[in-house]
C-alpha cells in the first residue's frame, strides 16, 4: 500500500513540474464591415419576416454573410408594412457583389456566388408573415403563413483562400537615419517590428488581421521611443489568379523622445522624495513605455496612493527632454478595518487592522493587525520605511500567536529587523529574527510541553514570471527561503546548538487548449541540525490544509511519537490540478479536479506521502481567485471542505 501511495505521489510531482501569373493583380484598400443598424429602433413596431432566407456557405463565412448581407439585414420590416417583389429583386441583384466584397475580407478572392428566388411575382406586393398573439392562437384572422413567403437561397463556393507570399516593412524618418548611422538600438527596433509581424508569408490573409498587424507594428514603434510614429504607406496587393497577397508597410517614426524631468501633481501629505525614488527613470534616456508602466505600478503598490497615472508629454518641442507627468491621488494618513470571516484551516474569526502612513511625522508605514477566533488568536505589527534607493525599504516587525490545532496548543512570538526589496518580478527580504515557541501536546500518556528559542539570519526570495499576478494562467512562480542560526532549548544546554533551514516552492501554470488550464505545484523543506537540538515549532514543518494537501485538516500531517502529532524536520508535497470554465455565460466561474500528495516527517527515510483528491469551484474575482474544494483524504477516509482566497507564492 505504501508503494502505491509513493508511486501516485511521484506521478503528482512529475505532472506538477512537467506540466505565377499576375494578369488580374489588383490593389485593395479594405474597410472593416460595420454592424448593421436595424430598420426599426427599439421604440418602433415589432418587425416580421417578408421572405425566407437560406445561406449555403462554410461555417464562419455563413455567419459573416448572415450578419452583414443586405438580404439578411432587411429580411424583416415593421409590422403593418410591406415590401414589393421589385424591391426584393434589387436586393437579390446586389447580393452577389456584396457577398464577394465580404468574402474578400476573409481572403477569398475567387468565390462563386449565386442567388435564386423561389415564389413571389415581380412587381407584386409581398405580404409579411405575422404570428398570432399568444392570447389568440386560434384566431381565424387572415395572415400569411411562413410557407407562402418567397424563399431566397444564397449559395457560396468560396474557392481557395489567399495566402501571404511577401511582406516588407520600411522605416522612414529619424529611426531610419539612426539605423543607417549604425545605431544598434534603431537596428534592433526595426528588426523587432519585422520579426513580430503577425501576417508572415504562408499565413492566410484576413482583413481584420491585416489591420491588427499594422496597428501592432505602429504600437511597437510608439512604445519604444517614437510615440509620434505614423504609417505613411501600406498596401495589400492581391494576385487573384495565384491567390497570393503581397504586403508592404512604411512607417514614419517621427522624432526620438528622450526622458526629461518628473512633473508631480496631487501631493499634499507625502513628499516628492518617495515618488522620485520609485521612478528609476534616467533623464536623457530614450523613452520606453514599459518603464512608465512599471513606475506607475510601483506607485500603486507603495501603500501611499489610491491612484496613480504616469504619462509622457508628447509635445514635439520638448522631445529632447520630454517631461513625465505623474498624477497622484493620496490615501488618507490613517485607516482602520474591522472584519469577520471564516477559514477552513482555523475556523471563524474577528479581525481589527489599523494602518498609519506617517506615524510621528516619520516617513514610515505602521501596520497592526489583531485576530481573534476559537483556534487562532494573534497580533502582528510592522513598521516599514518609505521606498529608499534601489527600491529597498527598512523593516521592523513583531508577532505573537496562540494556535490550537490537532491535540495541541502552540504559543509563540517573534521579532525581526531587516530590509525588503520589491521589483516587478522579484521580491527579496533580508532580516535577523528572534523566535520563541512553546508547544503543549496532548497524547495518550498526558500533556507534554516543549519550549524552544532561536536566533537566525534569514533570506527570502520570490520570482514571478506569469501572465497575471492576481489570476495567472501561464507562467511560473518560484520562492526560496534560507536561514541559519542558533537554537536554545528549554530542556538544557545539550539540546542547544546551531542549525540551518531551507524551503522552496515551485508553481507552474499552463493553458492546455480548448479553455482547459493546468496548475502544478511542488514544495519541500528541511531543517539541518543535530537530532538533539531543539528547534522552535514555528521553524519546523507540518502538511495538510488549503495550500498543502487537501482532504486533511490544517497542520494535521507530520510525524507521530507516542500517539502525539509533532512537527517534522523535512517536508515534501505536490499538487496537480486541471480547470475549465463551467459555461460560456459565466466565464469567470471554473470547475476543477485535483490530486495532492505529501507529508512531513522527522527524516526523509520516514516520509510517507498521503493522497488527497477531489473537485472544486473557482471564481476568478477582481481581487483574486476564490476557491471552494471538496477533497477526500485517502489516509483518513473522510471528505473535507476547503475555502481559500488568493494565490499562495
Question: What is the rounded Rg?
Answer: 34 Å
In DSSP terms (H or I, runs of 4 or more residues), the helix count works out at 9
Strand content: over 45%
Strand order of the largest sheet: 15-16-17-18-19-20-21-22-23-24-25-28-29-30-31-32
> What level of helicity do the residues show?
10-25%
Instruction: Compute the separation of the termini in Å.
Output: 33 Å
- Point out poorly predicted stretches: 1-42, 121-145
- Described by the principal axes of the CA atoms, the overall outline is globular
Mean pLDDT: 87
Helical/strand content category: alpha+beta
Report the count of strand segments: 32
Summarize the biggest pleated sheet: 16 strands, antiparallel
Sequence-ordered SSE layout with sheet pairings:
Elements: H1 2-18, E1 25-28, E2 47-49, E3 52-56, H2 59-68, H3 70-73, E4 76-78, E5 83-84, H4 85-104, E6 112-118, E7 125-126, E8 151-157, E9 163-172, H5 174-180, H6 184-195, H7 207-223, E10 230-239, E11 244-252, E12 259-265, H8 272-279, H9 289-301, E13 305-312, E14 322-330, E15 334-343, E16 347-356, E17 364-372, E18 376-385, E19 392-405, E20 408-422, E21 426-443, E22 446-466, E23 475-489, E24 497-513, E25 516-528, E26 560-561, E27 564-565, E28 570-583, E29 586-601, E30 610-621, E31 624-633, E32 638-645
Helix pairs in contact: 5-6
Please give a structural write-up.
The strands form seven sheets. Strands 15-16-17-18-19-20-21-22-23-24-25-28-29-30-31-32 form a 16-stranded antiparallel beta sheet, with helices on one face. Strands 1-10-11-9 form a four-stranded mixed beta sheet. It has 649 residues and is α+β, with helices and mostly antiparallel strands. The two termini are 33 Å apart. Strand 22 and strand 23 form a beta hairpin.
